[in-house]
Amino acid sequence: MKGRESMLSLGRDRNSGETVFIDDSRARAVLICGKRGSGKSYTMGVFLEELVRRDDVLVIVLDPMRNFHTMVLPNVEQERLLWDWNMFAEGVPVRLLVPGDPYRRYGREVVEAFERRGVEVVPLRLNPGDLPPDGWLELFGIDIATPMGLALYRAVSKLQRSRERFFTVSDIIAEIYSDPLIRETSIQALVLRLETAANDWDLFSTRYYELLEVFRIGAVNVVDLGVLEVGRVSLRNLVAAVLVRDLFRKRKEARLQEELGISTQVPKVWLAIDEAQEFVPAGKTALAKEPLIQWVKEGRQPGLSLIIASQQPGAIDKEVLSQCDLILCHKVTALEDVDAINKLSHDYMAHELRHYIRQLERTGEAVMVDDFRETVTVVQIRPRKSKHGGAEAQ
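Below the sequence we write its predicted structure tokens.
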């Protein structure tokens, strides 16, 4: 058996009562799903509590629903249940990363309230150079076959060749103005979009910003995507795409150094994404989709793990679902979602997955499929030590 430091305790086997552990000695791709109120966000919180104890991995959550900043508080509401499990209520360190200026996004009163709770509130900025040329086109919805598309692609490509990732939105604008092949009307249309991105979105850095330095080992690093509105331009996807590309590139370089016996300061990463269908949608494009597919398909070797959670597993891209080697499925009833999960059944199972899902009786129970061990277990998820933030307002 693996050492306990590489095992995550998730709950108990409903039949035997034995503790259920997950092997964390290798990179994993995890799907947590279930209909509204079935416990999927709660279960993700249990994962995060287990992972944050590790001193060699970076734990990051992309949180569109603002469910996870409450983990800094102890779960006093379930204190008696915790005692029954020989556990106690305990908060975990939380670093809240806010896209843009926290005071502009929240207001001073909210920032100070977070800090009184013990939450570290940190601004998160993006480097324009971390988004590839085709990413800029997708961000603005511009076709590369158009004059504007060609001009923007040329400008970003030229800057990435000459300055690598060290340039700003103002540099892109200057490059467009200096392009002799672009018409005046196209220049003005592009500059308007870029100035909006630079001035109104409050996301891009005006100097090179080392993304890895804003995260902290030993804390749950919560990226609050809830401050960004869902609109025609998906700023949530923009943040996710830039972060995923940056972390993937740095861990891939670090893994080569490790194999050559060179020390590195880039840790392994567990990335958790709530409402994952927003970022890897089935049958649709999204700015973060391609880099996330690369993460889940190629990330095991460099030590990049992924947890995706969704109420709608049927709305998640099949290429991502097929790569998940650990499934925790709470109650699902929508036919499309049951069918999507059932397609993940394996030959070593005694029954199809839909059979096990029907056996779920209580909130907090989940069918766990561990493809690494080739086992299927009905698990009662353990109570959270930290406060759950996904409950509905009363």
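The radius of gyration is 22 Å.
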